[in-house]
Amino acid sequence: MLKVNRLNALDISWIMLMLITLANALVAETADKSLFITAVICFSIAFKGRRIIDYFMELNHANKTIQLLMRAYFYVFPLLIFLADLFSEQLAVITTT
């Protein structure tokens, strides 16, 4: 007899990460460039990073300083991506002259 196992938190996280990645790829290929799309992508980066930290790296039980630094990484870099898109024209002027 075939035994069916329930999905655990790790399985659900993996499935969520794959679906979000596929959705991001679809949006990147089909959507018009806009600040809203950039914000959505940045939010998904932060969300995926938090899932990876908590469920795959199991840092939710680690030292609080390590948790803070790792979580900050996945919140700071999406913010930097958003700001780079927001000020892309100014950055282009600064870096090309």
Order of helices and strands: HHHH
The total of beta strands comes to 0
Tell me the radius of gyration. Answer: 18 Å
What is the quaternary state of this protein? single chain
Characterize the overall form. Answer: flat
Low-confidence stretches: none
Topology:
Layout: H1 9-30, H2 35-56, H3 64-86, H4 88-96
Structure description:
This protein is mostly helical and 97 residues long. The protein has a domain at 32-96. Helices cover 78% and strands 0% of the residues. The chain is built from four helices and no strands. Helix 2 (35-56) runs antiparallel to helix 3 (64-86). The longest helix has 23 residues, at 64-86. The termini are far apart. The mean pLDDT is 88.
Question: Main attributes?
Answer:
mainly alpha
In short:
This protein is an all-alpha fold.
